[in-house]
Amino acid sequence: MAVSVREVAQRAGVSVGTVSNVLNRPEQVKAATVERVREAIAELGYVPNAAARQLRAGQSTTLALVVLDVSNPFFTDVARGAEARAEEAGLTVTLANSDESSDRERKHLEQFETQRVAGVLLVPTADAGDAVARMREHGIPVVLVDRGTPDATVASVAVDDVAGGRMAAAHLLESGRRRLAFVGGPRGIHQVADRFEGAAQAVEAVDGASLTRVETDALTLEEGMRVGAAVLKMVRAGEVDAVFAANDLLAIGVQQALLSGADPVAIPCDVALVGYDDISFAAAAVVPISSVRQPRRQIGSTAVDLLLAERDKADGAAREHVLFQPELVVRASTRTP
Amino acid sequence: MAVSVREVAQRAGVSVGTVSNVLNRPEQVKAATVERVREAIAELGYVPNAAARQLRAGQSTTLALVVLDVSNPFFTDVARGAEARAEEAGLTVTLANSDESSDRERKHLEQFETQRVAGVLLVPTADAGDAVARMREHGIPVVLVDRGTPDATVASVAVDDVAGGRMAAAHLLESGRRRLAFVGGPRGIHQVADRFEGAAQAVEAVDGASLTRVETDALTLEEGMRVGAAVLKMVRAGEVDAVFAANDLLAIGVQQALLSGADPVAIPCDVALVGYDDISFAAAAVVPISSVRQPRRQIGSTAVDLLLAERDKADGAAREHVLFQPELVVRASTRTP
DNA sequence: GCGTAACCGTGAATCGTTTCATCATTGTCG
DNA sequence: CGACAATGATGAAACGATTCACGGTTACGC
User: Fold this and answer.
1) Which residue on chain A is closest to B220 by alpha carbon?
2) Same fold for the pair B5-48 and B59-159+296-324
3) CATH homologous superfamily of domain A59-158+296-326?
4) d(Cα B58, Cα A49) in Å, to the nearest integer?
5) A71 touches strand C (CB under 7 A)
6) Contact at CB, A284 and B256, closer than 8 angstroms
7) Which of A56, A199, B71, B81 is least enclosed by beta carbons within 10 angstroms?
8) Would you list the domain boundaries of chain A?
């Protein structure tokens, strides 16, 4: 069934070693021989067996990227950045989805460990510590993505979410808003916690400004629409004049809830709205949503860079921590009327 | 560095064969021995080497799913359905993205072939024929997804896109519209062609109804917004009173273009709008968009089922072709005022 | 014509796991 | 007590590619 080097060698009248050489260092083989072997390969439809190759090599040329949610455009963009950079280095990226469950995350990591992947790019769930330590012990390089740790033993690339939160809130405060609401959750997710923290800092610095917290169960469009109803009431009651959502999916959901009722409130007149991530849907919303932009593809490509650096690093050596600064993109949803 | 069965065997004072038996058929090994081996495994932190295992087994327990666009929620949902079903069968799914390029598609397929994957679920690009034939020749089962072929040699699971297109257009016609526009492209994509075909059939059946075609370069939000400007002019000019978009991303983009100008037209009063796929963003749009729903997860799970069936099928045996019927979900964007 | 170096090819060993024929041990029964 | 099963454990072969020390040719200069 399967064609192996042996058959190719026989057909071309050379040894298996030579076939391997043709495949891997053709410059060391006489042109005529290369030709003959190539022909045999084509005639037999030979396809190298990656498992055998990898067994010999000791590790694969695959990188794993584990994200919290494949449906979130933010992560697919990070993945694209990683893929592009990995391809340049001759590596392949496989994408896995933890769905924010540390259980699924652990399963994927174990799976990847058996595959002896060249490294793991991990957007960690709340309690990924043990799993990461284990990887490291077994000699698999790990880079944490979208999570800045002060931990010197693991490299990381992230965006300063506290700064991002501060930025978003400050922007709302500067345009005269005082009664802010933060929409996001669950609290366990550090991105959410950091963005809230930043917003809180900005609010504290301004006299008479307040920050109400509206909790969600997930960072999805649906959750945004659900809590949007509550936000709508608060706006009507005059308790809130600006909303900062922990990500764009939530922001879009909240906007729908605010606009789609029989008697909608006006954005930005009655209430301003800021999101986070700057996914393409944000710019395309009815009232285009101001958002905090993260260099998504760059996050992915940098993560791969760190991973490559990791490979030739002594065990005790300090790890690099790259922290990108986010950028506020102002759109109609916060433009002062 | 790497711990192998050999070391585990030595530590536990048994042979390598026994370690393997503990791993794969523990019921054939005395309880006390199992215990001892398990301890050794834990102490040494042994992790089986998937490459070696696979080399021996001859093929992997991984399924490949190649989609046209990972960022499209439709495909991520199909993927989830496939993953769930595959997990039940003890298989893993890896996701790859062709970005509608048959070149990237080919590369991925070659890659998967070297990996000797257990099978490939393929959402094919326009000219995937050769690549598929090649896979089949090499004994790798293939199931085409989202593409109904009359081809008896390849199994497929798809949704009746012609019926879906007919359904969408008929719905618009029934609610009194006569000047329809079809937004979609490029023509090469068969889903687009089929949906248009269905719409054309419905329009032909009604006296005085017309169908204008508005071409796009891709099925994305951005393209929708771009051509939306043209659609807006046509609506203003009274040339169009209903739009059928080839997918929801386009529909959402078109809606933004129609609503966000200084002097927006009214949906559904001035123009009705139908999309395709029923992604969650469709229901969450400002004016919730009517859409043709496909059983996404079921498509994925059925594809896996067909693949499993494929494995124990004679080469000449006929392949199954599952064709799901889509379902129209009516929302505000087409409700008669 | 000979020595040498450069160039090509060879083939056996190796990677880690599974499988399977075979051996060893224990227990059972007549 | 001996024959026979049943049960556990063994160890060598095999999977397919790569590597590397080594052997055979060729070409060249003297």
Assistant:
1) A280
2) no
3) Response regulator (3.40.50.2300)
4) 9
5) no
6) yes
7) A56
8) 5-48, 59-158+296-326, 161-294+329-334
Nearest nt to A58, CA vs C1'?
Answer: C15
And the tokens for A281?
Answer: 């849907």
3-class state of residue A278 by DSSP = coil
The shortest CB-CB distance from B73 to any of A51, A71, A138 is to A71
**In contact, B74 and B296? CB cutoff 8 Å:** yes
Q: How much is the pLDDT for A1?
A: 58
Instruction: Show pLDDT as tens, one digit a residue, over chain B (337 residues).
Output: 579 999 999 999 999 999 999 999 999 999 999 999 999 999 999 999 999 999 999 889 999 999 998 888 899 999 999 999 999 999 999 999 898 899 999 999 999 999 999 999 999 988 888 888 899 889 899 999 998 776 778 899 999 999 999 999 999 999 999 999 999 999 888 899 999 999 999 999 999 999 999 999 999 998 999 999 999 999 999 999 999 999 999 999 999 899 877 778 999 999 999 999 998 889 878 788 999 999 999 999 999 999 999 887 766 677 889 999 999 999 999 997 6
Q: Nearest CA to CA, how far is A256 from chain B (Å)? A: 6
Are the Cβ atoms of B114 and A79 closer than 8 angstroms? no
- DSSP secondary structure, A11-30, as one string: HHTS-HHHHHHHHH-GGGS-
The answer to whether B39 and B32 have CB atoms below 8 angstroms apart is no
| Amino acid occupying residue B237 | A
Domain A161-294+329-334 has CATH 1.20.1250.20: no
- Provide CATH code, domain A5-48: 1.10.260.40
CATH of the domain spanning B59-159+296-324, picked from 3.40.50.1370, 3.40.50.880, 3.10.129.10, 3.40.50.2300: 3.40.50.2300
CB proximity B46–strand C (7 Å threshold): yes
* Distance in Å, alpha carbon of A201 to nearest chain B alpha carbon: 32
Which chain A residues contact residue B107 at CB under 8 A? none
B155 beta partners: B143
Bases on strand C under 7 Å from any protein CB: 7-21
CA R_g for chain B: 26
pLDDT tens digits along A303-332: 999 999 988 776 667 788 999 999 999 999
CB contact under 8 A, B45 and A114: no
The structure's pTM equals 0.85
Least Cα separation, residue A202 to chain B (angstroms): 31
Map tokens 């709340």 to a residue: A126
In this structure, the number of other CB atoms found within 10 A of the CB of residue B99 comes to 15
Residues 23-52 of A with CB under 8 A from B: 45, 47-52
Distance of alpha carbon A86 from alpha carbon A308, whole angstroms:
9
